[in-house]
Amino acid sequence: MRPFLVVVAAVLLLAAAAEATSSALLGINYGRVGNNLPPPTAVPQMLSSLGVGRVRLYDADPATLRAFANTGVELVVGVPDECLAAVSTPAGAMSWVRSVVQPALPATKIAVLTVGNEVLTGANSSSLSRSLLPAMQCLHDALAQLGLDRQVAVTTAHNLGVLATSYPPSSAYFRKDLLPLLCPILDFHARTGSPFLVNAYPYFAYAEDPTGVELDYALLDPAYAGVADPSSGLHYPNLLVAQVDAVYHAIAADNTAVTRAVEVRVSETGWPSAGDGNETGATPQNAARYNGNVMRLVADGKGTPLRPTVALRVYMFALFNENMKPGPTSERNYGLFKPDGTPVYELSYRLPKDNTNSGAGGMGLVDMVDTSSSSSMCGCPDDDDGIVILSRWMDGRMEGRKPLVSNGVRGGTLGALLLAVAAVDKGIDGSECHALV
Fold first, then answer.
1. What global pTM score does this model have?
2. 118 has catalytic annotation
3. Which of 79, 85, 173, 174 has its CA 20 to 30 A from that of 65?
4. pLDDT, tens only, 354-364
């Protein structure tokens, strides 16, 4: 097929997807790395009181899937990193879809599969990266064979560490070592109409360089004057939209045709309400301002300076504070709520009442990201004496200049690598990834 026709087909796919999705644009992460959190069955009612109609999970935990059955809440279900090899073959992908996705439908509304998380930049990237695209393609093909590909999309989430540079946004480009992997992934998104997801945290840009990054710019303060991109002349009112446009520019630098067909969405963003002594800016006041401003920004329905007509879609991190997350204090303090359901702080902005999943599919407002599970993460039985906890860490610091945009992701201090903590890791083989028990 000629490149022009590929782009036209992809644009038509995006248009069809837009018609099927809700007008809701904002997401919030629902993590379960804690021993004091309410059970999944208690969450749908809480989400309803917040006007939340969509949830994104990082695994296919059976109890969680059942908790959302017949609730009308749309789910984005994760295929964990541990399962990538197993689902990277046609037979393995079909087995997973038949055992996990198909039985849950239609009672449980599964709209999207996210294949892995930050695979290309994680500590296990060397062993997992080559399986990422085959897993995405095989899962999409399996869904298509079952007539579910229009109902369930396939994507993956990246951190901003995939960028070699992000300042200014117009000069951003992908790391050259990742291009052999990213180029075909971008082609996959263009062909299927699925979004390119990034985890973006202005907090880390500020925390790592508080004298070079204005706090109001990082907090998305609507009164802040903003920063101009000296190359493009575009004006950036806040750091989050600058980060998103940096990704758009990186995609365009790789393939101009593809960038017209691929939408960038923010799969994680947040601000901690507490931190260690060296975690500058981690306060409840700043967290309240940031998350309130994210809600306001997305509720306005506007796009970025580069893509003003494409409404920005964002997933906030997180619903609850999670007391078993490893790492610095901030990691356990991203929640809007304490485990008992009381607010950690009062937000200055509330979502509009129509913030629900009025559409039939897709990843819109409000989507949630469940960052872990108390069961083994392939949708398999629990390990018999504990949980597997995985936490990915990437350094978000830009070298050599004060950033307009940061490649920041959760957990980044200079030189930080993946801190993978397994409370119990019995090991998960490929066959276990196929079974939903």
1. 0.80
2. yes
3. 85
4. 555 544 344 43
